[in-house]
Amino acid sequence: QCALVARAGGTVPLPRVLDRVAADGVAPRGATVLTFDDGFADYAEHAVPIMERHGLTATMYVVAGSVTGSGVSVN
């Protein structure tokens, strides 16, 4: 899937799309934004190397309260 997205023009960082919508009221035509909900540590191990290989960017959302002073909670 990442190879297909890369061939179709790649991804646009979410903040760039949000800035464009705020300025013009319209998202850039054909913009693809990758997001990962409920981000976990394995994102860096599995997803990031694949995205780097294809030159893609993404936004990861971390579950509130899952990151503590001693690291990521596994509960």
What features would you highlight for this structure?
flat, single chain, 4 strands, two-stranded antiparallel ribbon, 3 helices, 75 residues, alpha+beta, 11% strand, two-stranded parallel ribbon
What does the main sheet amount to? 2 strands, parallel
> What sort of overall outline do the alpha carbons produce when their principal axes are compared?
flat
- How many DSSP helices? 3
Average residue-wise pLDDT: 85
Strand order of the largest sheet: 1-2
Radius of gyration: 15 Å
Unreliable spans are none
Please provide the count of β strands. 4
Order of helices and strands: HHEHEEE
What does this structure look like?
The protein has 75 residues and is of the alpha+beta class. Helix content is 40%, strand content 11%. The N and C termini lie far apart (31 Å).
